[in-house]
Every structure is written in structure tokens, then in C-alpha cells.
Write a structure and sequence with these properties.
CATH topology of the largest domain: Cytochrome Bc1 Complex, Chain D, domain 2
Strand content: under 5%
Oligomer: single chain
CATH superfamily of the largest domain: Cytochrome c-like domain
Number of strands: 0
Number of helices: 12
Order of helices and strands: HHHHHHHHHHHH
Helix content: 25-40%
Number of domains: 2
Distance between the termini: 15 Å
CATH class of the largest domain: Mainly Alpha
Length: 295
């Protein structure tokens, strides 16, 4: 088992299995989070529950996890030192062949920071011109353009919008903080997974999301349509639900506060899926710099 076992390049550095399989056949508790564009997460905390305060601490956690790799850091240092090419590579990177957990962490973290996806069809359109411009429209087909308008549009503000960009911000489409998105079957009455607290979970970048099924921290959704269906009509009320998912129009008028219902049409759902598909970066997914060097 290696990092690449559960973070596969062709799947956006995620795992097509709902739960990954560790060194002795046990399965992980959560779905493998994509590493794409991890460097752009402003809070610089990692894992679904943000328990790792730095990328350097994150990359060492799976090594020591009893399900994932089941090793000690001392054992890792010894094992790497016994492979003939690693001392030479460490000498090239750090000036001496000494292998330490700190150097392993720094090397792995820098590799993850290098996983930048920026050559998708959306990127090419964005480079041609700003959204709404003739150049942007010429570079991106009509259906994903409609999906982009829905993605950035805010529900209830006079335009048709799904409000996705309120959480998935910037052209990295990455969240600023963990959020409670009203998933059913978690918390005290479900699987007990509280995430970062109050059933809040980090959201990874949406780059290459179309090749990263299944979705959510527990891999419950098999398709992007299922994900959109959740936000469209299945968000469940709970005391910690993120404000962006509350129907604030009712609150303003004195009505009961309930989860927002987007009421997207089938065409609009198709458009959102098309836009998310336009974030697929085939160059990144096959870039030999990030590929398995042993194949």
C-alpha cells in the first residue's frame, strides 16, 4: 500500500472505491479525499475534519494509521534507507543521504503542493476572456456556460442560481472552511461522524470532480447528479446547517427557517453537470511528472 493506492492520478488523486483498503485488507472510515489543488485551501488544514494543522503533518498520518499503512515513523525511515535509490534521492534533495521523518514529510508535502490542475476546458475559456465575454463564450459550449452561470448565481437574488460558488470559491472552486451541508444519516442518530464538529466537513477543490466518484466524506453519492439532487431537494434541517443552505427568504418574512430548495430543472441539472465536467484537466490526469515512477 502506498499513498498512490488511495490517491490515484487518473481519478483526480482520489479513490474510485467508496472506502479505501489498507495494508491488511481493512477498509478506511471515510472516502479518500482528492489532493488536487490542496495547496489553495486558505485555512491550510487537512483531512475531512481538518485535524491536520499542516500538510507536513497530514502526509505522515496515513503511514501511522493502523488501517491504512500500519507503520511507525522509525520503521518508515529504516525501510526507506534499505532501498538502494532512496539515500541517493534524499542526498539530491536535502544535501545528505540521511532519511528522517521530517525530510519524508517535507518531500511528500511538496509533491502534494505541486498537484495543481489548471488546464481544463474551463481554464482555456477563462484565459480567453472573462465569463460573459465573446471570447469566453466562443471557447466554452453553451451547456457548460449555463452551468457556470448557475454555479456562480445566488438563489433568490433575481437570477436563476444554485449558489455553489458561495462555498466553492475562486477559480480553484475550493471552500474556505468546513460546513454542515445537511446530509442524512450522520451525527448522533446516524454514523456518529461529527467531522470537524457539528457535522461539518471540509470540501476539496472541485477540479476533476467528474472523474472522482463517489462523493462526500462517506462516498454516499455515486454520481454528480445524485450530489446535485441532494442540494436541489434533499438537504436536511439540523441545528448546525450552514447558512448558505437555509432558505433565508422565509426567515426575512417571519416564516419558518428551512433548508433551501433550488427547484432546478432537468436542463439546469444537466448544465451544472456539464460545467463540472469542464473542470476535468486531462493533461493533469496523465502528466508523467505525477505518475507512478515504477511503472
Amino acid at each position: 500500500v502506498s499513498c498512490g493506492t488511495c490517491h490515484q492520478q487518473i481519478h483526480g488523486f482520489s479513490d474510485p472505491r467508496r472506502y479505501s483498503v489498507g495494508f491488511d485488507g481493512q477498509t478506511t472510515r471515510r472516502h479518500s479525499m482528492s489532493l488536487t489543488n490542496a495547496r489553495y485551501y486558505a485555512r491550510a488544514r487537512f483531512f475531512w475534519d481538518e485535524r491536520a494543522e499542516t500538510l507536513e503533518s497530514q502526509v505522515l498520518a496515513p503511514v501511522q494509521d493502523p488501517v491504512e499503512m500500519g507503520m511507525t515513523l522509525e520503521g518508515l525511515e529504516t525501510k526507506l534507507g534499505q532501498v538502494d535509490y532512496y539515500p541517493r534521492l534524499f542526498a539530491q534533495a536535502f544535501g545528505s543521504s540521511t532519511i528522517t521523518e521530517d525530510r519524508v514529510a517535507r518531500a511528500l508535502a511538496q509533491f502534494v503542493r505541486a498537484l495543481v490542475s489548471s488546464q481544463s476546458p474551463y481554464d482555456r475559456a477563462r484565459a480567453a476572456g472573462p465569463p460573459g465575454s465573446a471570447a469566453f463564450s466562443a471557447a466554452l459550449p453553451e451547456l457548460p456556460r449555463l452551468g457556470h452561470r448557475l454555479f456562480v448565481g445566488v438563489p433568490g437574488e433575481g437570477v436563476r442560481g444554485a449558489g455553489c460558488a458561495r462555498c466553492h470559491m475562486s477559480d480553484a472552486q475550493i471552500s474556505l472552511s468546513p460546513r454542515n451541508i445537511g446530509l442524512a444519516g450522520i451525527g448522533p442518530d446516524g454514523d456518529g461522524d461529527q467531522g470537524a464538529g457539528d457535522e461539518r466537513f471540509k470540501a476539496p477543490s472541485l477540479r476533476n470532480v467528474a472523474v472522482r466518484a463517489p462523493y462526500m466524506h462517506d462516498g454516499r453519492f455515486n454520481t454528480l447528479r445524485e450530489v446535485i439532487d441532494h442540494y436541489n431537494a434533499q438537504v436536511e434541517a439540523n441545528p448546525f446547517l450552514d447558512l448558505t443552505l437555509m432558505d433565508r427568504r422565509l426567515a426575512v418574512t417571519g416564516g419558518p427557517v428551512r433548508p433551501v430548495r433550488l427547484e432546478l430543472t432537468e436542463q439546469e441539472i444537466d448544465a451544472l453537470i456539464a460545467f463540472l465536467g469542464s473542470l476535468t484537466d486531462d493533461i493533469f490526469l496523465t502528466d508523467p511528472r505525477f505518475s507512478d515512477p515504477f511503472m
